[in-house]
Write a sequence for this structure.
């Protein structure tokens, strides 16, 4: 992908993609103005974001919707298959496994890991739960590069270290604590409580 | 709060707060440079973000850590008690209920709503699950203004409409679909699959 896209723009691409897919099939063309209005954004912003993809808008008619969808999917790597694992098969890990929608982005969650003997050996949403000690063989075997960290805060750093040692290149961290990783590993932190606090301070 | 703070800065305030709280008790002063280095951010950015709060840094020594924590907590409304409800007591709703950490921000999740007779009347993490038809009396009685939407995508808009009609002012939407609300209602969309896709496209 174009590594120069700002993260803030990148975050909006799935929103455009979902919106475009939600339109009725007879909607062949879309303008940046239409997208901007539907999503409550500025039109210049929409046009700038879409310019990072290979899509080319035409004067007056705008974008061919199918082409724009393909451009966004290409950019987001939806056609490439990527394996992901979940660390922590508790309530949150199970919820993520059951969340669905990952395959729209070319992502398969192939396994979960836990250290609880009650959970290891079971299946959740059709995916095996392995002991965390098996990560070092399972993760390379799956060629998994993505991980979702769903362990309690006090285990987060330790488990993140294990994931990194097993070859994980990007971690989505749901634990309410910051984790440290080498520069080569990308981390995206989703602190549910902090997000609700942000929302609370906006009203 | 200062409504003029950009959302992007607001999003970083809980990160600073968590970092400051994680430092050992004998750390009385912190500089923006220290915070920036620890969190891998630019120092100017940190100083700008913190300038939205009431905290005042002093030349050379920086901020008094306890004062900066208080300033961040005040800004984020951590000392004010806010009631929140969860719509959807499935796997995700239960995971959010069990997530914890909300009280650090002054938020109490007081109830969940569902339309499944199997779930209604039970307790999850000590919180009652009510039938969604009770929302119009329960939400005003709780004076809840925050809601976390954890229902499947095809119910998201309908349930959001109910929440808004009951007086909810801000919705954190986990459903992988955009919802429409009146301008007076703030929505924060957390699409777990899209977040993983963004992360995937960054590696």
């Amino acid at each position: 992908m174009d590594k120069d896209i700002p993260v803030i723009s990148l975050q909006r691409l799935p929103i455009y993609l979902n919106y475009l897919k939600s339109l009725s099939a007879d909607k062949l063309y879309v303008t940046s103005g239409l997208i901007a209005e539907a999503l409550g954004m500025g039109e210049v912003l929409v046009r700038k974001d879409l310019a990072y993809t290979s899509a080319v808008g035409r004067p007056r008619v705008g974008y061919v919707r199918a082409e724009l969808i393909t451009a966004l999917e290409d950019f987001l790597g939806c056609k490439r298959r990527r394996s992901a694992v979940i660390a922590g098969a508790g309530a949150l890990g199970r919820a993520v496994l059951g969340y669905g929608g990952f395959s729209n982005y070319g992502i398969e969650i192939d396994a979960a890991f836990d250290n609880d003997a009650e959970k290891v050996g079971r299946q959740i949403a059709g995916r095996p739960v392995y002991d965390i000690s098996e990560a070092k063989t399972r993760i390379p075997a799956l060629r998994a590069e993505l991980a979702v960290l769903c362990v309690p805060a006090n285990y987060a750093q330790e488990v993140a270290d294990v994931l990194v040692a097993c070859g994980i290149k990007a971690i989505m961290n749901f634990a309410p604590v910051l984790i440290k990783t080498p520069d080569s590993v990308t981390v995206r932190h989703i602190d549910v409580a902090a997000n609700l606090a942000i929302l609370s301070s906006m009203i």
Summary: The domain at 82-197 of chain A is CATH 3.40.50.720 (Rossmann fold). The longest helix of chain A spans residues 153-165.
